[in-house]
Amino acid sequence: MLSCLLLTACAAAVANPAHPSRSVDLAGILRMQPQGTSVRLLPGAPPNLSSLHFVNAQDGWAGGQGIILATSDGGRSWHRQYLGAGTVSGFSFLSPALGFAATSAGLLKTADGKTWSRVDDQSLDQVQFVNASVGFALEGQRYSLTQNLFASSDGGMSWRSLAIGPVSQACFFGPQVGIAALPDRIGGTLTMKRTTDGGANWSTVLSVANAVPEQLQCTQDGGAWLVAGGQAGMSQQSYSVFRSTNEGASWKVVLAATTEDGPGPGNSVGAPKGPGSSPGSIGAVDRSAAVMTGTCEACNAGTASFSTTTDGGASWSPATRPIPLQVASPTILDMLTAQAGWLLSSPGPGESQIQETMDGGAAWHTILLAGPTKPTASTAFVNARVGYGIGKTGDPIAVLRTQDGGRGWRKVGELPPRAVGVYGLGAAGTATLVAPTLHSALYKSTDGGRTWVTLPGKGLPAFDAISFATSMTGCASVGSPQFGADYTTRDGGKTWRRAPMKGVPAAVCAVSRTDPALAKTAMRLIDRLAPIDALTPAYFLSTVATGGGSLWIVVANTPHSRLYILAPNETPRVVHWPDEEINVSSMSPVSAREAYVTTYDGRLLLTRDAGAHWTQIP
After folding, report:
1. Of 46, 55, 114, the residue nearest 82 (C-alpha)
2. How confident is the model at residue 539 (pLDDT cuts 50, 70, 90)?
3. 196 burial class (0-12, 13-18, 19+ CB within 10 angstroms)?
4. Cβ burial, residue 83 (10 Å; 0-12/13-18/19+)
5. How far apart are CA 192 and CA 208, in angstroms?
6. 3-class SS string, 363-377
7. Is the confidence at residue 606, as pLDDT, over 50?
8. What class does CATH assign to 26-41+372-616?
9. DSSP string for 313-372
10. What are phi and psi of 570, to 5 degrees?
11. In the Cβ-directed half-sphere of 441, how many Cα atoms lie within 13 Å?
12. Cα–Cα distance measured from residue 567 to residue 564, given in angstroms and rounded to the nearest whole number
């Protein structure tokens, strides 16, 4: 039976109410019309980078959420060139001065390599201009199977759709000749099509069974490289690299990785062995030279390795020594030569890292590490101004504190080295913090995060979420709602015993120890919205948090996403939840009207009016 609740470890201070809540009518809550909400996000903050391109060894650009950064010294220094609407997902440069950027809010253009202006508001995901007038692009629905391929003949001021079908990848060798990869996940066949008349007509040049297109790159000398993913399972996926030397007219497998689920797609017998056990990114230089990344998700919490060819794939250098994915996950690989290139990765939530290699991927060094100034792992506020957090860019075990509502953070201590992997932080009172880890250890601080002691946690098995209602009383949820259990403590986490309930979110369990009526109403509401016995729940409960005696329940990723706020002896509140703008990772309420939200892309937002308005903390 499938689980219908995904609980994030999130807790804040809860006062023990002198007068427990009276019973609240569940039917009345369900009949309430949700109130509207608005969200104000800051462009470019944090700079979650998603695109990277160097035109030579000195001039490069990186783009992300509402921001473009540039370097003119090979990445030693970076400066901001653009701050505005739209996520930058791809670049196309014809020279160090003339370039284009695809964004979710339209096409941007620079004529001097420094200043950017909006050309059109067509949402784009990938873009390639073959000259100043003619360009091609995929619509702005990344990872979708229904992307349309567009063409422009006026420098991007207008676009026309090309009749080819759902395209995953495409690239062109000039105004007339281009290739496109079409997936068919139902039939499992990858189809490569080619045009010689600018996209008016297409012919099939390659068909590969049991394969999906992972990446396609064209080079200026008529070469093309295609990464095709094969059968997947048990944290691995077979893959093959296909190469063309005649503008995509014919293809040959030049590299393949075989797994227990099967060989690399296509005629991969005898092909050199590819690095890793799953495909990463490929960096194509020309028709002869390319660097391929392979990953191994099951190796030491994830590794990446690289192989290089300079003879068209006839031979490849031995795979480099695997490096940790936390250091260099292969997001975008941009190779200028077979030896020199740059790698864009995301070592942590909301973090971006650009690394450089001068030896074909054998060694890397970081030239840019950007991330939010707020905590990267988790946050917990004890009141409207004071909050604590775990992790910062480049320092995952740092303990941070804010005294101005999240606008400024400073490091006050560190978690024990064994605590790497902390996924939650509970705060109760102004000085007591409890940090659970992936290894189910509990660390407690009573001096605001400066020093930590290990709690014995006697009687507590591996848990998924933890919440404290007071400095001494809390709950931990273990396993799925159907098969798991809840444990409670009344001595600050030293000892635990089974709670008299099962499958209850940790926050609700914690409140049940101080306000049984409120917790009972919350559990009835959750069971109605996401019943634990439903194979396909109509709702997806993303987070339940407690603060100031209230319970905040977010039902997200549905056509009717909602925020429910239940507070002692107050009228419940129901608010629309803006999924597209707030992808909530955790929530930390401090009262019935005020709460902080951490998003998966590294933003910290605040509401002071029970969810009617959300503002990003600058």
Report:
1. 114
2. low
3. middle
4. middle
5. 9
6. CCEEEEEECCCCCCC
7. yes
8. mainly beta
9. TSS-PPPPPPEETTT---SEEEESSSS-EEEEE-SSTT-EEEEEESSTTS--EEEEEE--
10. -125, 155
11. 14
12. 10
d(CA 155, CA 145): 26
Surface-to-core class of residue 254, CB atoms within 10 Å of its CB (0-12 exposed, 13-18 middle, 19+ buried): buried
Count of CA atoms in the C-beta half-sphere (13 A) of 235? 10
Kind plus residue range of the DSSP H or E element containing 280 = strand 278-284
Dihedral of CA atoms 144, 147, 152, 158 in degrees, nearest 10, equals -80
Residues 242 and 191 sit within 8 Å (Cβ to Cβ): no
Q: Which amino acid is at 363?
A: A
Model pLDDT for residues 278-297, shown as the tens digit of each residue: 999 999 999 999 999 998 88
Which has the closest alpha carbon to 504: 519, 489, 491, 515?
519
Structure-block tokens of residue 438: 């992936």
pLDDT digits (tens, 9 = 90+) for 541-594: 778 888 878 899 998 877 788 999 999 888 999 999 998 788 888 888 989 999
Q: In this predicted model, what pLDDT tens digit does every residue of 505-526 receive, in sequence order?
A: 888 888 888 888 899 899 889 8
Q: Under a CB-based contact definition with an 8 Å cutoff, are residues 346 and 319 in contact?
A: no
Distance, in Å, from the CA atom of 70 to the CA atom of 80, rounded to the nearest integer, reads 6
Residue among 234, 270, 264, 267 at smallest CA distance from 250: 267
Residue 200 in 3-state DSSP? coil
114-173 pLDDT tens trace: 999 999 998 998 999 999 999 999 986 544 555 789 999 999 999 999 989 889 999 999
pLDDT tens per residue across span 319-378? 887 776 654 456 799 999 999 999 998 876 677 889 999 988 888 888 998 877 778 777
Sign, CA torsion 429/432/435/440: negative
Tokens of 398: 């740092």
pLDDT at 9 over 70: no
Q: What's the pLDDT at 55?
A: 97
* Structure confidence at residue 249 as a pLDDT band (50, 70, 90): very high
Looking at CATH, the fold of the domain delimited by 47-134 is given as: Thrombin, subunit H (2.40.10)
For the chain, give every residue range classified as CATH 2.40.10.
47-134
Contact 276, 305 (CB under 8 A): yes
- Please list the residue range(s) of the chain that carry CATH number 2.120.10.30: 26-41+372-616
Q: Model confidence over 191-244: pLDDT tens digits?
A: 999 999 999 999 999 999 999 999 999 999 999 999 999 988 878 899 999 999
In this structure, is the dihedral angle defined by the CA atoms of residues 291, 297, 299 and 300, taken in order, positive or negative? Answer: positive
State yes or no: pLDDT of 15 exceeds 70: no
Coil, strand, or helix at residue 54? strand
Question: Which residue type occupies 77?
Answer: S
Token code pair at residue 185: 């996940």
Which is it for the CA torsion 270, 275, 277, 281, positive or negative?
A: negative
